[in-house]
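Observation: inputs received (chain + zinc ion).
Thought: call the complex predictor directly.
Action: predict_structure
Action Input:
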Amino acid sequence: MECRRCGAVLRKEGDFCPKCYKEVLEEEELKKDVVPLLTVKRKYKPGFHVRQRWDVIVITILTVLSCITAGHIFVGILSGIVGFAILLAYMAFQKMLAAKEKVVFYEKKVVKYSKVPFFGSTKEVAYKDIKDITYYQQTWRQKRANMGDIVVYVKYTGYFGGIKLDNVENGTEVIQEIIEKVPIRVEE
Ligand SMILES: [Zn+2]
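Observation:
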């Protein structure tokens, strides 16, 4: 007889070896955990997102100006329209992400829901596997807009198996709320 999960030879009658049986029980417990304690959402902040795409704005303005200076009025107008369209598409994408992505903290697990069309996913991490939770502000633009990323790190090393939610507003307060409302105990 073999373990249905890892294939180890079983000495006693049963479906799983002791190690896998413990895992199965833990997974069952996690599935039952469905009452949300805290929800953190991605934020859409138009001014912030426009400034994030300053490169598109600068390139568009320079292109339009140089076209007009060179007498190519039509190409200049066209470039302006293209640049503006890229910016609008970027803004629409950010707005969509803000509406579709969230992280929910339960009693024993944290889950990231991403309901983006075609690329939807659900990522779940049990609290016992969490190494650390941080609020990360990469750029001064993020700092100025009071935006940043919430990152959940897992214990196992190697690839990043945690959860990351971008563009969260007031992250320091969010972290404080997590500490107050969610029973995560990060072991030192
Ligand atoms: Zn097993």
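Thought: report the result.
Final Answer: The chain is about 45% helix and 25% strand. The first strand starts at residue 38 and ends at 41.
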